[in-house]
Design brief:
Layout lengths: L14 H10 L8 H14 L3 E5 L2 H11 L7 E5 L4 H8 L4 E5 L13 H4 L4 E7 L8 H11 L2 E5 L7 E2 L2 E2 L6 E5 L12 E5 L5 H8 L5 H5 L19 H11 L2 H18 L1 H5 L3 E2 L7 E2 L5 E5 L2 H13 L15 H6 L1 E2 L4 H9 E4 L7 H19 L1
Helix pairs in contact: 1-9, 2-9, 3-4, 10-15, 12-15
């Protein structure tokens, strides 16, 4: 019986050729030709003001926190059901994460709860597009503008997903993307900061280049470069950028192949949802997703544990997701909650992610679905 891993990184085709070119260019550090080509692809495909490659999505979020000028005493509203980097980027600036509950249907931040969490200390709102499905952005954008708050999209999972036909990463003042090997488009490790407001263009380059005006120097805008602001070493190497470019060039076909796997899962689990045994992912009518993830929500934590154990013994790697930040040791130390977190706690206890990667055969998907069904029917008997 063959093993089905949770994730298997894809090689799209020309990665090795591009890496050889990068080596031949004798430019392996950051901000070289392949970095420029990746950034140009993102700017053109997303239609954004600027995109800067980073060595991770974590780095992009840290840059966003610096550019937003958050500091001690400031508060940043965000969901608790997210990866630690969403909060950590702002905690590093000594701001306080304020955790808001999520919606039961999409696992995204509940837009109806955000305004009640705003205080005179609130500086920014950070939304997370869980599983590549958009948050309900229209009321969030309106609220941020009305209250004069910076809006940041953690779009780590959202490349090529849309809301009302508009690509994620283009709604906030800034957005962070991920190219980690578990994402749809990968560089092993990597990310990007996307800017939708020109007021941060010049400073973003400075923060990106360790707090120096080095980029302006290479454009001939200054006669020497020096330390002018805070920053860090956020650039990826040209090796990573070369790998990423090959992936970006195949982004649409990769997304379509992932959707085929997602659709097969979704059809296979319709009977279980109809019988009330599980809940499948919900895709709102105004959203188009990128098939980043397929998950199931079980009626209880015990059912999830039973199914996960059964899959493990059947050679299928299925995993749960975040421990909610509001109940984590650092979350209780550095952040606070705004209201009850009942939905977040329930989702965290009952959600299970299934294998999904380009190259999974229809037989692989059917086997996973059959094993889930077999375990769940036994658990519910």
């Amino acid at each position: 019986m063959s093993y089905i891993p949770f994730n298997r990184p894809l090689v799209a085709g020309p990665e090795l050729d591009y890496i050889r070119q990068a080596i031949g260019n004798r430019h392996l550090s950051g901000n070289g030709p392949f970095t420029s080509r990746c950034q140009a692809w993102l700017q053109q495909r997303l239609g954004v003001t600027k995109a800067l490659l980073t060595h991770s999505c974590t780095a992009a979020l840290e840059m966003a926190a610096i550019l937003a000028d958050v500091g001690p005493g400031d508060e940043v509203i965000m969901p608790s059901f997210t990866f630690v980097s969403t909060a950590n980027a702002f905690v590093l600036r000594r701001a306080t994460p304020v955790f808001v509950d999520v919606r039961a249907d999409t696992c995204n931040i509940d837009e109806s709860l955000i305004e009640a969490a705003i205080t005179p200390r609130t500086r920014a709102i950070v939304v997370v597009h869980y599983a590549g499905v958009a948050c309900n952005m229209a009321p969030i954008v309106e609220l941020a503008k009305r209250r004069g708050l910076i809006l940041v999209e953690d779009a780590a999972q959202g490349l090529l997903s849309t809301y009302h036909g508009r690509l994620l990463g283009t709604f906030g003042d800034m957005a962070a993307l991920s190219f980690h090997e578990t994402k749809n488009i990968i560089a092993g490790e990597g990310g990007a900061l996307v800017l939708n407001d020109e007021r941060w263009t010049m400073r973003s380059e400075i923060v990106w280049e360790k707090g120096t005006n080095r980029t302006q120097f290479f454009r001939g805008q200054v006669d020497k470069y020096t330390w002018v602001d805070v920053g860090s070493s956020y650039l990826p190497s040209e090796i990573n950028a070369a790998f990423l470019l090959a992936q970006l060039e195949e982004a649409e076909p990769i997304t379509e192949r992932r959707r085929a796997v997602w659709d097969q899962y979704h059809a296979a689990f319709e009977p279980l949802e109809r019988d009330g045994m599980v809940r499948r992912p919900t895709i709102p009518a105004d959203c188009a997703h990128n098939a980043h993830m397929y998950y199931l929500l079980f009626r209880s934590a015990e059912h999830r544990k039973t199914v996960q154990s059964h899959l493990r013994h059947a050679g299928v790697d299925a995993v749960f997701h975040y421990v909610p930040l509001h109940s984590s040791p650092a979350g209780t130390r550095y952040g606070r909650t705004a209201g009850a977190m009942a939905v977040t706690d329930r989702i965290a206890a009952t959600l299970l992610r299934l294998p999904l990667w380009v190259g999974m055969s229809a037989d692989d998907v059917a086997r996973v679905a059959d094993e889930v069904t077999r375990a769940l029917v036994q658990a519910c008997a």
